[in-house]
Amino acid sequence: MNIYDIAKEAGVSIATVSRVINNKGTVSDATRAKVEAVLSRSGYTPSAIARGMVSKSMRTVAVLTVDIRVPHYAQQAYTIEQAFSHRGYEVILCNTGGGKEATVRYLRAVTEKQVDGIILVGSVFNRIGREPEVEALLRQAPVVLANGRLDIPNASSVLLDDESGAALAVDHVTALGKRNLWYVKDLNTASALAKRDGFIKACERCGDRVRGRVIETEFSIEGGRHAAKELLRSCRSFDAIICGEDETAVGVVKGLLSAGVRIPQDVAVTGYNNSIFASMCEPRLTSIDNKPEQVALMCVQLLERMMDGEPGGIVEVFKPELAQGWTT
Amino acid sequence: MNIYDIAKEAGVSIATVSRVINNKGTVSDATRAKVEAVLSRSGYTPSAIARGMVSKSMRTVAVLTVDIRVPHYAQQAYTIEQAFSHRGYEVILCNTGGGKEATVRYLRAVTEKQVDGIILVGSVFNRIGREPEVEALLRQAPVVLANGRLDIPNASSVLLDDESGAALAVDHVTALGKRNLWYVKDLNTASALAKRDGFIKACERCGDRVRGRVIETEFSIEGGRHAAKELLRSCRSFDAIICGEDETAVGVVKGLLSAGVRIPQDVAVTGYNNSIFASMCEPRLTSIDNKPEQVALMCVQLLERMMDGEPGGIVEVFKPELAQGWTT
DNA sequence: TTTTGTATTGTAAGCGCTTACAGAATCATT
DNA sequence: AATGATTCTGTAAGCGCTTACAATACAAAA
After folding, report:
1. Cβ(A75)–Cβ(A293) under 8 Å?
2. What's the confidence (pLDDT) of residue B123?
3. Alpha-carbon span A4 to B238, nearest angstrom
4. What are the residue ranges in chain B where pLDDT is below 70?
5. Count of CB atoms situated within 10 Å of the CB of A267
6. Which H or E run contains B271?
7. Which of residues 29-58 of A touch strand C (CB under 7 A)?
8. Are strands B90-95 and A90-95 parallel, antiparallel or unpaired?
9. B residues 249-288 near A, CB within 8 Å?
10. What pLDDT digit, counting tens, does each position of A97-128 carry?
11. Is residue A42's beta carbon less than 7 angstroms from any atom in nucleic acid strand D?
12. Which residues contact B177 (CB under 8 A, 6 or more apart)?
């Protein structure tokens, strides 16, 4: 069932049918009625592929995310999907797992499908974005990077200011009178390093009255618990623990509570991301919220601008916010 | 940059270029090398749209889910996406929100895009699947329903046996010696009703020694807490509480613990779905796991079968499993 | 009535690819 | 050298649509 069938049935030409369907050009009322009757009677569905052939667009955008099961990414994918859905675009979802090979495979697939835009959620592209093979693919469509930078003309990005996020936590606990701060470094990503640096700088800004030190552990609740035990065991003085991730912070809280430490009177604890872990932990974690929904909406706006033909190269910096909980 | 450019550059016909790209038909080694050289030098990307025009397939499947932010759906979407990705298909993700209007809009969009298959996650279609408008759309592609039934020839489905899931919980706590069971009904979905019926029937199967009653509350942690307080307040006897959802069960646990009730010695509690709520609750909830990943894989298999031309109409019933926690 | 302008409709090209078919080239066989 | 079989390559049609342009119809103005 195609446009020819409809045209024949209605006794008009395919151009007229097309004009009726797209409500474009001039069609007399009588003809329009005739065609519309056939249209609704037949259950005809126009082929988006054939349309795409002409317009070179399938009205589709691709979202490449590391893993949609991570709530943070799910929220962003959801926000992006809804925003585009309301504008008549569908979203192709790709779970890259963060690996280069899969990422390239997905990029190739979606560029072949001539998506109208690509949003990259996650930071793989800081590493692989400059490889010629990858860059060639990325040049095929407007690209927006959530949390990362990419120096090609058709790419924009939203950067998360992790340094200021960590500084937010430091300022918060020092304002509460805490003086001996520890940063729990759990990951080795660029983001985690930025947080650590932000922590150190913020402590230095406070002068001698505040001391900031770093302890490393594994990224997990267990890792956090272990870090807490380690601090307690080594008899180091501490009255605030700034963690790189909520998971770790949950572990720290558990470790401290089980040792009889009072939170936040004795020790304040902060997490990062204001994730579900922060909300389910009792007492509720104070955490740094980088508002995945807002970031996603910024990405959508940047992409739309490029899809409208405006140049890319824009870098927006998103400042995280402090989400106060019961642990500070 | 299209296949004509490549052909001209390589001094061959477009048919030969096509044969090289698709590794189909016969091409002499010399010609192949010549074309491949041009191909890699030019960074040419074949147009999937044009291919789709010929093959009437974009190698894409659609996943309609209520809300990807719900971890259960995220897991299923992830599983489906990965499975199809490995077979060279991309996935279009739609968040319907469970409403009819949005659902129809998405169905129309993806059928216009001539997706090779549709997987419907969530149960809206039990209600709207029979409306002529919806059915006409659903007939355009092979369809698989996760947790729901649809009587059209090109649809298969995986049903979750909610009754047996609830019975699993009943059998488990009665085996532990519990005799006064309550079912906490929190939702009004078909699924929730099936669980309640399964609960009642399972209790009846135990004869006089077991008594099963039902209490209603709101679907939320707070609702669960409220139900627990209510049971305590009204001085009813109970030694096991079977909940329709993990969220409610978490609330029940909190309510009981704060009243000094020992779990599971005094009262056993079970949730449903074995979600992240079950795992983050302390003590860890015993819950009913309907294995979203396995269900998703069954959906994929059913869809693939239909995409290979085999008839649909298959209904697989998935039996949930008990996930033992510390609350029983 | 003829002319001019406008509203309506149709014809045909072309989007980039696959593929059936035909034709050319090569090779083995007689 | 001629024939047939085989391998290789090119031509052209067609996938279902949009749209530029041509053609027609019709109404108003001259």
Report:
1. yes
2. 67
3. 70
4. 123
5. 24
6. none
7. 29-32, 50, 53-54, 56
8. antiparallel
9. 276-277, 280
10. 989 999 999 999 999 999 999 999 976 777 77
11. no
12. none
